[in-house]
Design brief:
- The protein is mostly helical.
- Helix content is 96%, strand content 0%.
- The longest helix is centred in the middle third of the chain and has 69 residues.
- The radius of gyration is 31 Å and the shape is rod-shaped.
C-alpha cells in the first residue's frame, strides 16, 4: 500500500509540475503578446507623426506658393 501511496504522490507532483510549466508558458506568451502589441502601436504612432509632419510641410509650401503668386 505504501508503494501505491508513494506512486500517487509522485504522480501528483508530476501533474503539479506540468501545471506550473503550463502556467509559466502562458504567462510568458501573454507578456510577449503584450510587448508585440506595444511595439506595433508605437510604430504606428511614429508613422502617423511622420505623415502628419509631411502633410504640414506640404501645406506650408502650398501657402508660400500662393503668397508668392498673389504678390505678383
Amino acid at each position: 500500500m505504501a508503494g501505491l501511496t508513494a506512486a500517487g504522490t509522485l504522480m501528483d507532483e508530476d501533474e503539479d509540475a506540468e501545471e506550473k510549466r503550463r502556467r509559466m508558458e502562458a504567462k510568458i506568451a501573454a507578456e510577449n503578446f503584450g510587448a508585440a502589441i506595444g511595439f506595433a502601436a508605437g510604430a504606428a504612432m511614429a508613422v502617423k507623426e511622420k505623415l502628419d509632419e509631411q502633410a504640414m510641410r506640404e501645406e506650408q509650401k502650398k501657402q508660400q506658393h500662393e503668397q508668392a503668386m498673389g504678390g505678383l
